[in-house]
Amino acid sequence: MWFLCMFFHRLLDYRKTEVESLAELFGAFGDRDRDRDDEENKLLLEWRLPLHHHPDSPFHFVNLPSEDIARKIANRSILVKGLYEVWGEGGSYEELEESIRSYPDERKLPYLNSGSTFKITVDTFGKVISFQEQNHRIKGLAYIPFKGRVDLRNPEHKFWLMETDDYGVNNGLPPMVQRRIFFGREVGGADRKLLPTYQLKSRTYLGPTAMDAEMAFLMANQALARPGKLVYDPFVGTGSILIAAAHFGAMTMGADIDIRVVRDGRGPDCNVWSNFKQYGLPMPVALLRADNNLPPWRPGLKEIFDAIICDPPYGVRAGGRKSGGRKLLKGTVDPYTVPDDKRTDHIPSTGSYCLAECVHDLLDLAAKMLIMGGRLVFFYPVLREDYVENHFPGHPCFKLIATSEQILSSRYSRVLLTMVKISPYTEEIAEAAQIRHIEFRENHLKWLEDGNLHSAVFTPTDPQLSAAGDSKLSKDPKPKYRGKYV
């Protein structure tokens, strides 16, 4: 059954992948399995563009098994503004009327009867129209035999008149070469109160790398978070990602190497726990002081998490750390045991933790601790000039099913990788994963090692200008970061 999907015009690379993940969550693909690659088993939805629309257009047609699944997807999605049963479309209002009149009466009449209430909303993309123009367009739909009563606050049926204009390429939006008008019944729509409720500026406890609420909810959707599932974040920080997972009903668990974050925060009423309390969410099962490089799990423990969602430290705003300290890691001093009388307030020494090693350890942890079919969702940074699509670190236990790029500046992006576990963890697989890790680290991007990503992002744009002694750069020894939210 075909529906018109209208997206919010942001995070363009994330839109379809989110809908496809939610389609799997709500059973749109039946009994098909992720670990099979044959054409009959492709877990992808069928999409098509409206006539004369650019691929980045907010309007797409999507084929879904039922209206119930479409409603569930629209109500939970972050980037879908609404899903609609289209009664008619055209390049003019005359064509629209002809199309609506030809739509089967048996599909229209149940929503036009005298005992129902309805509302018509006019929406546009690429232009703004006045309230008077909106009323004029609504009155032009008099040929539709509405018999119910208008209710603007809580109608049973919501109808939308959506219009794009032939603005060409002059206003910064996806090119539109011809006007297009849609009229349809809303099947489901986004919860517009969700993001304002969870916005970071009202959060009780924040850190410098707290995940934006919108992105945290997208990650939770990619991980298929839902009631009865256990979600783990090995770089939990102030808990932003777990809050999104908990909102969707999942049980949560987190770890961080900084004990001051997971244990103390800024006091008894300003910590990770208080963030969950602020929104009335179930508290995490546990928050651990743990090192991703030396996980705390006992030998033989495996396959306990349904999803792992995280934002590994990649050295732009905060660098990765692992246990040991510089002297211990270099072998200058031997391992030591902290005396019992000093353990209460002891903060362990840590050393630098490069991104290549961090991602390898994350993949190894996920391969052991995720259930079969469980999802690993994490961000991976790329320099835009070196970006090669689908050339990412991998693991024999995982299949990469989605990549979504978010441009952070003219120099670097971060890509949300979604992987699904398709094979059990064995010692042979662990050895193969180590070989793959070494090859990737040595043959791919050199900036994965300590400091190079940070240097690539923060160095002056024109090194020749810097070498010539540009006065502005010479006055400021710390070049300004030129990133922006996209």
What report would you give on this structure?
With about 475 residues, this protein is an alpha/beta fold. Helices cover about 30% and strands about 25% of the residues. The protein is built from 16 helices and 17 strands. α7 (about 215-220) packs across α8 (about 240-245) and α12 packs antiparallel against α13. Mean pLDDT is about 85; it is low at about 35-40 and about 465-485.
Please write out the topology.
Blueprint: E1 2-7, H1 15-25, E2 46-48, E3 59-63, H2 67-76, E4 80-90, H3 93-102, H4 105-108, E5 117-125, H5 131-139, E6 149-150, E7 157-164, E8 180-189, H6 194-198, H7 213-222, E9 230-233, H8 240-247, E10 251-256, H9 259-264, H10 272-278, E11 286-289, E12 305-310, E13 321-323, H11 325-330, E14 350-352, H12 355-369, E15 370-383, E16 398-407, E17 412-421, H13 427-443, H14 452-458, H15 463-467, H16 471-475
Parallel strand pairs: 5-6, 5-7, 9-10, 9-12, 10-11, 12-15
Antiparallel strand pairs: 1-3, 1-4, 2-3, 4-8, 7-8, 13-14, 15-17, 16-17
Helix pairs in contact: 7-8, 12-13
